[in-house]
Amino acid sequence: MDWTAHVDGYCERLAPGLWGEPLNDLTNLAFLLAAGLVWWRGGRVLGGLIGLIFVASSVFHLVATRWAAVADSSAIAVFLLYYAAMFPRAFFGVPLRWSWLAAPGFAVLTAAIAALGGGLYLPALVGLAAFAVALGVMRDRYWTHFAVAGAVFALSLAFRSIDSVVCGDFSVGTHILWHLLNAVVLYVVSNAMIAKTAPSPEGERAGSAD
């Protein structure tokens, strides 16, 4: 496989070149903003991982090559696996020696859904819904954060899916909305974990996100 081969996967890109997707690149700044806000809130690891998504996505939309596409997907996967591993610890107080098992569990779910034709991002939507339901059953007030994040991500995924369909009527496509809405999702779920694990007046602390 030629890892340097050109990837033309988005409506906005008309030809190879570093500035072939200016709006897709500019909207990546939403990830940088989300990373900065999360870092400022105290989520050092989460903020760093969102920052990694910003870098990888920016590079991909600049150079549009296969290796950059893999780097882009890998950065997202790292965030998802880390969050999956920390979720049981942060929200249910599961010891880290058991909590981390959620990461390979999520990886298996992703592989299974992808094999069934569900793509690589549908598992994230399933995970957000599962988190919302689990917290709702436990009457944890943070369930609303995941319900909102799930709704926003569903909309984001829809915009990503129709990018090539709308090219005839909307030349820049809708991938820019995928970036903007995903930045919101990343901030909402990161903020929920940071708030949940912060020391409270009652001394409750389920675990640490970092």
UniProtKB/TrEMBL annotation:
Q: Which UniProt keywords apply?
A: Membrane, Transmembrane, Transmembrane helix
Question: Membrane-crossing residues?
Answer: 29-55, 105-135, 142-161, 176-195
Q: Does the keyword Transmembrane helix apply?
A: yes
Q: In terms of domain of life, where is this protein from?
A: Bacteria
Q: What is this protein called?
A: Ceramidase
What is the scientific name of the source organism? Amycolatopsis jiangsuensis
